[in-house]
Write a structure and sequence with these properties.
binds guanosine-5'-diphosphate; Ubiquitin-like (UB roll); 19% strand; 3-stranded mixed β-sheet; Rossmann fold; 14 strands; flat; 6-stranded parallel β-sheet; metal-binding
Length: 384
């Protein structure tokens, strides 16, 4: 499964946000019969307006959203997650203060597919800021520097090794050369304070350096944690505006949430949530936005199954074939896969039903090689 690591300085709201995710997961547990909710696991539904449209057209008895999971570091050890996202918390200032432990934290981050950095944008004199004042740019710089230093260190060690040139045949020699040239390009970018992901590399170089799992190669989403009265018009808060600018120059995503509001929301019944959000001048929970942004960042895609019993959204990775996508529902579907009947979401909506889509020739029959597309509505044929 794919993993997202939640990082940030101490006291920025990571735990509050994470706990909101976990509470939310517990509240929704009944809707997710496919995932066991354990103490350190939070499942969040991925908001998707297409789900209800399909469900209405198919006159389904229920609509089941897809979900992604966030897992706390303690729960991570088991790692038996069925969801697509696993996140954990890392306090960066703690990382750099306690060096030995810091490296251990960083090695956890090395394994994630994307990084979610919570940045404090709320003022509250009762809550100590490690730098003495709310300063999101400084916070982002601290963490970027930490990541840059760690990558520089790793690259230096690796280049030293490569210089000894142990390759015996020409193929491994070429591979070493590609790794060396890739790393040198990245090294000079890092010296300029630029992340590895900003460097353009050949496919061969990318492949050759992949094993290093460089931290600045990973995509980042910034989560601006704001006070509740900033939720309606976040850009009125100068801190948020600054983070927006930074996120744009760093080619990173940005989501505004109020961790505190999310934590309060997670304790309310569903009907009361809408009322509370409306009173704050917003239509949707920030958790939903965060989930969607993480989903996109990780390269996840949604396909649907839709019938009278239920309409359901399923999560796959971009590039998955029809049998692999079927395997997300059940491994038997993948093993016994014969063909898939497929119609694009828009075609389904135009046709109004699966039957009409079939009559109009919009329903295609696809085989084992078919790459499932975003929004496909699928019907699998398989041998048991
Ligand atoms: P962490 O160290 O990053 O995990 O931060 P915590 O989630 O433990 O939050 C630190 C403190 O800030 C706690 O007392 C939270 O209640 C408080 N806090 C978190 N988010 C908000 C927020 O949006 N507004 C305000 N006023 N306080 C918050």
């Amino acid at each position: 499964s794919l993993k997202a690591g939640i990082v940030g300085l101490p006291n920025v709201g990571k735990s509050t946000l994470f706990n909101a995710v976990v509470e939310n997961g517990k509240a929704q547990a009944a809707n997710f019969p496919f995932c066991t909710i354990e103490p350190n696991v939070g499942a969040v539904a991925v908001p998707d307006p297409r789900l209800n449209v399909l469900s209405d057209l198919s006159k389904s008895q229920k609509a089941v959203p897809t979900s992604i999971e966030f897992v706390d570091i303690a729960g991570l050890v088991k790692g038996a997650s069925q969801g697509e996202v696993v996140g954990w918390l890392c306090d960066f200032r703690v990382c750099s203060l306690l060096q030995g432990l810091g490296n251990k934290f960083l090695s956890h981050i090395r394994e994630v597919d994307s990084i979610v950095q919570v940045v404090r944008c709320f003022e509250d004199n009762d809550i100590v800021h490690v730098n003495g004042k709310v300063d999101p740019k400084a916070d982002i710089d601290v963490i970027n520097l930490e990541l840059v230093f760690s990558d520089m260190d790793q690259i230096e060690k690796r280049l030293d090794k490569l210089k000894k040139g142990k390759a015996r045949d020409s193929q491994s020699k070429a591979k070493e050369e590609a790794e060396k040239s890739g790393l040198e390009k990245i090294q000079s970018a890092l010296l300029d304070g630029k992340p590895a992901r900003s460097v353009s590399l050949t496919d061969y170089e990318k492949e050759a350096i992949r094993h290093l799992c460089l931290l600045t190669m990973k995509p980042i989403i910034y989560v601006a944690n704001v006070a509740e009265n900033d939720l309606a018009v976040p850009e009125d808060n100068p801190h948020v505006k600054e983070v927006m600018g930074l996120a744009a120059t760093l080619q990173s995503g940005l989501v505004t949430v109020s961790a505190q509001v999310e934590s309060e929301l997670s304790e309310l019944a569903l009907e009361e949530r809408t009322e509370y959000l409306t009173s704050l001048g917003v239509s949707e929970s920030g958790l939903g936005n965060l989930v969607r942004a993480t989903y996109d960042l990780l390269g996840l895609r949604t396909y649907f199954t839709s019938g009278e019993k239920e309409t359901k959204a399923w999560t796959i990775r971009a590039g998955m074939t029809a049998p692999q996508a079927a395997g997300v529902i059940h491994s038997d579907f993948e093993r016994g896969f014969i063909r898939a009947e497929t119609v694009a979401y828009n075609d389904f909506v135009t046709a109004g039903s699966l039957a009409t889509a079939r009559e109009k020739g919009l329903l295609r029959s696809e085989g084992k090689e078919y790459i499932v597309q975003e929004g496909d509505v699928m019907l699998f044929r398989f041998n048991v």
